[in-house]
Amino acid sequence: MKYNRIIVWFRNDLRVHDHASLSSSIEKGKEVVPVFCFDPRNFRELDLGISKSGSIRTKFLIESVDNLKKNLQKLGADLIIRIGKPEEKLIEMALELKADAIFFTEEVTEEEKKVENNLEKAAWGKGIETKSFWQSTLFHIEDLPFPINQIPEVFTQFRKECEKFSRVKKTIGLPTKINFPSESIDMGYIPKLSTFGLPDKPISSKSVLGFKGGEDEGKKRLLTYFWENDCLKSYKETRNGLLGADYSSKFSSWLSLGCISPRFVYEEVIRYEKGRKKNQSTYWLIFELIWRDYFRFICRKHGSKVFQIQGIKNNVDNWSKDKNLFFKWADGLTGIPFIDANMRELNQTGFMSNRGRQNVASFLVNDLGIDWRWGAAYFESMLIDYDVCSNWGNWMYIAGVGNDPRENRYFNILRQANAYDPKGEYIRHWIPEISQIPASDIHQPFELSTSDLNKLGIDLGKTYPHPIVEFKI
Ligand SMILES: Cc1cc2nc3c(=O)[nH]c(=O)nc-3n(C[C@H](O)[C@H](O)[C@H](O)COP(=O)(O)OP(=O)(O)OC[C@H]3O[C@@H](n4cnc5c(N)ncnc54)[C@H](O)[C@@H]3O)c2cc1C
Q: Which PANTHER family match (predicted)?
């Protein structure tokens, strides 16, 4: 054993399976001390007047931390909780507990990197070793067929080269036992939403799923989606859906906080392919996980540029800063039903389909011309599956400041609405006040005459807004 006591700092890796820093600390340390820090900077109010992490997302985090604590207890350990800056709290704890090392998962983006660097500097000054581990992608950074600074800018090239020249490492087995110190330690407590000044906001019963955080729930969702409901074999055909639990996997929230690892999902896909069926759909789930990897590696390559208005393309456009229009978009009050329904789903459940995300993002940046970073910040606050790289990467892409060789990712909202919600069921689910409009007109109520609308009991401007932009059909 090289170390007497190792602190394992948990971040977006809230699981005990396939966990590199936990497994390595068990191997290298006589005793292991798992710690999670709720960093108040993640709950601060942004300039837009919203919390950096809203209620629904924070609740999912709290549930995930709670489940991690239970799973660590089953292995003979526990999870110490602190509220404060990790670079301070972890050093205090290391000194107090006489730990000789801190192990953690490496992150890639600006704020997270700053915390890591400050921690490493402070630890070095006190003679405490630090060691970081790579573990949130399908392909390990060491197995990429190119150095980070030469990651292809175009997704297809990235994917093809990874598929040809790389391989997915096997998952790391579940630990059987963790040696936790026997002395009395202040374990801290799991905070409530009110600790961060956030109101308790239950997920609407209209949600696609009753999302609950934690490794156990993530694994349960996989069991249901792949094995019980047998949905993987038709994923490619259903993945652009809008309503219901099973049109797509809904794994994103658990992947974002690391409650399940992408390699675990990958191994389950392979098991399904061997035991049930192998087809385009089973491959397509892996294809989407490679998108996830791609954004993480692109963020690693381009650093803080992914948060800047010009993105990684250095395009400087005249973005609007119209807060009034922005909050009409955010509140689902644009008068364009397909946009409003999606934004209401996001606000009431913390989730939105991929099809919805592409449309509302395109509408904000292309139709309203509003600063794409406001949209990304709003999603950051609201999305239960917020992932810094997937979010800011996708927004950059749609805003035309990312890597897409097709330049402008413009979505024709009405065409999309009619194609993906031809019967208007999605609109009726989220905008009951216009549910009486027949399917042929429900996506464009503003095209109906006042008398036709009145006959349906709709008064545009009163019961549902006039559109905030003009649309040509
Ligand atoms: C503007 C915008 C913002 C987004 N923000 C996020 C975010 O913060 N967090 C997040 O996890 N995803 C984000 N996405 C990607 C995608 O919309 C979600 O991952 C997906 O809708 C989650 O549902 P699912 O798990 O059922 O996906 P599935 O269709 O079942 O896909 C399986 C998994 O593949 C990954 N994946 C799928 N599509 C993408 C994609 N376009 N980019 C990256 N990974 C993908 C996810 O991990 C997902 O769980 C964003 C997309 C857009 C257009």
A: CRYPTOCHROME, CRYPTOCHROME DASH
pTM over 0.90: yes
Instruction: Kindly give the number of the ligand 1 atom that is closest to the alpha carbon of 295.
Output: 43
Q: In whole angstroms, what is the distance from residue 149 CA to residue 133 CA?
A: 19
List of residues 6+ apart from 206 with CB closer than 8 A: 345, 348, 349, 429, 430
The whole-number average pLDDT for the span 311-334 is 91
What is the distance in A from the centroid of ligand 1 to the CA of 152?
20
CA pair distance 168, 138, nearest whole angstrom: 6
Q: In 48-64, which positions are buried (b, 16+ CB within 10 angstroms) versus exposed (e)? A: bebbbbbbbbbbbbbbb
- CA 318 to chain centroid, in Å, comes to 28
Ligand 1 pocket, mutate which of 234, 265, 384, 385 (most atoms under 8 A from CB): 385
Q: What class has domain 323-456? A: mainly alpha
Which pLDDT band holds residue 222 (cuts at 50, 70, 90)?
very high
Take residue 82 and report the two structure tokens written for it: 């602190």
- Residue having the nearest C-alpha atom to atom 26 of ligand 1: 250
Q: 421 in helix, strand or coil?
A: coil
Q: Supply φ then ψ for residue 188, to 5 degrees.
A: 70, -170
Least confident of 7-21, 207-221, 315-329: 315-329
CA of residue 288 to ligand 1 center, whole Å: 8
Token readout for 336 is 């364009």
C-beta of residue 145 within 8 angstroms of C-beta of residue 157: no
CA neighbor of 349 nearest in space, from 206, 200, 214:
206
Sign of the dihedral defined by the CA atoms of residues 459, 465, 470, 473, in that order: negative
464 labelled binding-site residue: no
Mean pLDDT within 446-462 = 96
Q: Which fold has domain 1-135?
A: Rossmann fold (3.40.50)
Cα(22)–Cα(10) distance, rounded to whole angstroms? Answer: 9
Domain ranges of the chain: 1-135, 136-170+215-303, 323-456
Cα angle: 140, vertex 107, 123; to 5 degrees: 115
Per-residue pLDDT tens for 132-191? 999 999 999 999 999 999 999 999 999 999 999 999 999 999 999 999 999 999 999 999
User: In angstroms, rounded to a whole number, what is the distance separating the alpha carbons of residues 267 and 360?
Assistant: 33
pLDDT in tens, 13-62: 999 999 999 999 999 999 999 999 999 999 999 999 999 999 999 999 99
